[in-house]
Amino acid sequence: MKMILLRNIITILILLYVLCVPARADENIINWMTINYPPAYILNGPQKNTGINDIAMHIMIRDLTDYAHKIIEDVSIPRMISFWENNDIYCSPGLAIMENYFPNTISSNPILVIPPSGIIIHKTDINKFQRNSDGINLESTFKNLGLKAGIMKGGQYGKNVDALIHKHQTQKNIIQRIGIDQHALLKMLLINHVDYLIDYPVSYYINLKKLSPDDQDKLIFVPLAEAGDINFIRAVCNDIPESRILMDSLNQVLETDHYKLPVIERNLDFLPAEVREKYRKLNMKVIGVE
């Protein structure tokens, strides 16, 4: 009788424990969404999962131990926006946007700082574009209806550039594509389907290497006058109470050297030698700080 009573007491205690303890990690799942955008995310080939933001995401996963994690690969920006309408936690580990760029989302402190976006054109076309000491003027370029732009729909190219894209996006000379990578856009430029592309130097140089030497020699990357000096990369999640709690923990991860150092070093792999030291110091100072 005493043994039965003891077993019943133990059963009750276990039941009370289960009911009272916080939710287990597998009940707090972060759905991480990645996009096909080397070198930020590398989804295929021998370097798969070694992109700059891939490295950042896997450190976040390692250090956010109160959560389970699921990775959803190759999510377009429009699809990402639809995921953010869920009541579960959906996050992009890194997008080049200003804080709270998308409605109903929240953003982390900077996870990385990168050089600003620019314009890719045929070298022989340089005189078709209005430019000054800061670079090509994008506003006047958009207004020139004889020049066609190729842009990844939903892409983020910095606050000022994004504002200009939004302002002119209904024009027939602004061609936006969904579900197409930058390498495919370069091919569109090479066959003169468009006259220029907007991209980041880190993305341009990695995709340029996929072209033949002759095609590589035809193109040039030129800064945009409106792009500014730097661009912040931030993690972005849907704005629900669980994500707000997550963001506090994520920002703490970003402040640590065991996050900063490997992410900064991977970023430097894709930068021209002359700016590497600048961005090493800048990222050590800026990452995780608002």
Structure description:
With 290 residues, the protein is α/β, with parallel strands linked by helices. It folds into two domains: 26-114 and 231-286, Periplasmic binding protein-like II (D-Maltodextrin-Binding Protein, domain 2, 3-Layer(aba) Sandwich); 118-223, 3-Layer(aba) Sandwich (D-Maltodextrin-Binding Protein, domain 2). Helix content is 40%, strand content 21%. The protein contains eleven helices and twelve strands. The strands form three sheets. It has a five-stranded mixed sheet with strand order 2-1-3-12-4. α2 (52-63) packs antiparallel against α10 and α10 (257-268) runs antiparallel to α11. The protein starts with a helix and ends with a helix. Residues 1-26 have low confidence and may be disordered.
Strand order across the biggest sheet?
A: 2-1-3-12-4
Subunit arrangement of the protein = single chain
Give Rg in angstroms.
23 Å
Query: How many beta-strand runs?
Result: 12
Shape, please?
globular
Please provide the ordered H/E string of secondary-structure elements.
HEHEHEEEEEHEHEHEHHEEHHH
Rounded mean pLDDT is 87
Q: List low-confidence stretches.
A: 1-26
CATH superfamily of the largest domain: Periplasmic binding protein-like II
Q: Specify the CATH class of the largest domain.
A: Alpha Beta
